[in-house]
Amino acid sequence: MNFDEAKLELQQLLNKVSPPEVGKLLDWMKNSDELDHLLLDNNKLILQNIADDLRPRLPLEAMFPSEAAAHQKMQQCARPTVHVDSFLYSDEQVDALCEEGAMSRNYCLSCGSFRTAPLEFISHSFSATELQFLFQNLLPDLSGRTVVDVGSRLGAVLYAGYLYSSASRLFGLELNEDFIRLQNDIVHKYKFSDRVQVLHADVCTQEVLLSSTDVLIMNNVFEYFMESSQQVRAWSFIMQTFRRRGSLLVTVPSLQESLSALQPGWVEELPVDYDVYLGRDTDPEALRQIHLYRIM
Ligand SMILES: C[S@@+](CC[C@H](N)C(=O)[O-])C[C@H]1O[C@@H](n2cnc3c(N)ncnc32)[C@H](O)[C@@H]1O
To answer: pTM for this one?
Structure first.
């Protein structure tokens, strides 16, 4: 049954409910979590299994010691900032870790006192819900298309792209060799290799691949990993190379935010419907950070 058919049946059902109960029923549908199990599909379970496999292979902060530049950049943030990877840890898991004392949402303003302030949390990965939104709501049918995730890190975009889309090829580009190893192990274990390939490479060396890419995904790739001058160089390369008319570009944050120095005149922004409920973990603010563009 598709959306329009289901809507019609629901309207017919609601017409039969006694009028004083209608409001109660609608409120229950909107606010209760008793229907959330309907949203838990098999693909989400596979993504959860992958996160279970990855968690013990990384420190709690999900960053490797080999990411020296990223560690340094985080220390330079205006407010104390910690990395909590939202692909590996759901909000509920973070709450549980905070209760155990393994994680904290606050830092002490003067040691030993009760004066605390909230820590800034960032994630270097999309959450499972954001990934579902990306492939089920934001992007069109990807049959026969080539998708490239720039900075594939844990590989979350590649696994979700494999499970939720019909893209014929999904490439991950990643600078850090430790993450390449992790991704290859998962690709092998879950038998994704017929459509997924991970390349240990700087995006700026991938002229041939980018010129034949249909969908380029860039989730906060450079901000924490490259100096400003290198970021400008990398964006210039992408603007010159990723040029096939009609190809799609997904970015977090918006191009306007990332490219204040360079004018993104080679793309047009497409409208996105962010009003979608994907379960209790849905963070509408995080979804709104995801932007979609078409190459002109
Ligand atoms: C924020 S993470 C993106 C994670 C992943 N795409 C996701 O959405 O879940 C950015 C990653 O980009 C990698 N990276 C940074 N600059 C890169 C470059 N020039 N080429 C390839 N990877 C790069 C970093 O090592 C880091 O792992």
So the answer is: 0.89
